[in-house]
Design a protein that fits this description.
This protein is of the alpha+beta class. The chain is built from ten helices and five strands; from the N terminus they run ααβααββααααββαα. Helix 9 crosses helix 10. The N and C termini lie far apart (about 85 Å).
Length: about 190
């Protein structure tokens, strides 16, 4: 068997694995695919190229990343949301904006535990993607979802394509609600 034949055998079943991963995790990027599938970088790159050539997958480049999607499934705004959901820090910022309604830069920085400069950088990306917008109230800049995006759109994509993250986030919201409800009852009992 020649080296060429061996390479052909190694790569033969990989396009289906890569395609399945993209279908179940749309908006993923190259390193994410490599990490999850535990395949060599060259094999992933080769298969992504083949999948794009055959029209099964499309990609969008934003900054340093190229994000992959199954062809013909998502609209532009859904692709933008999925790109954000695949990245931890910016996803946390987006979820905080949904949860807290109009947080400012300091709120985000303190809650997530990142610098104000990092918050600024990530929010600029979210604004450029038309997922959030900045609203100035006095000397503060607060962040809200863009008019073309609803929290329902984000939650639906999160539930469908990132169920483990959805479960973690929704459990946190439920615990917060129960905690606040419990404190409210205790305060009523002490009156």
């Amino acid at each position: 068997m020649t080296l060429y034949d061996l390479l052909g055998e190694i790569k033969k079943d990989k396009p289906e694995k890569v395609l399945h991963f993209i279908q179940t995790t749309p908006g993923c990027h190259l390193r994410q695919i490599k990490k999850e599938l535990k395949l060599p970088m060259g094999t992933i790159q080769y298969n992504l190229l083949q999948l794009e050539k055959t029209g099964k997958v499309t990609s969008i480049r934003r900054g340093l990343y190229r994000f992959y999607f199954p062809s013909g499934v998502f609209q532009d705004n859904e692709r933008a949301i999925l790109q954000i959901l695949s990245q931890e820090t910016v996803r946390e910022i987006l979820m905080l904006i949904i949860e807290r309604k109009n947080p400012n830069q300091t709120d985000i920085s303190n809650t997530i535990g990142i610098s104000a400069a990092s918050v600024n950088w990530h929010t600029k990306r979210l604004i450029a993607s038309k997922i959030i917008k900045e609203v100035k109230t006095g000397k503060y800049r607060k962040y809200v979802l863009h008019d073309s995006i609803s929290s329902k759109d984000i939650v639906t994509l999160l539930k469908n394509y990132y169920p483990s993250i959805w479960n973690k986030w929704s459990s946190g919201l439920a615990e917060t609600f129960l905690f606040l409800s419990g404190n409210g009852r205790e305060n009523e009992n002490h009156k």
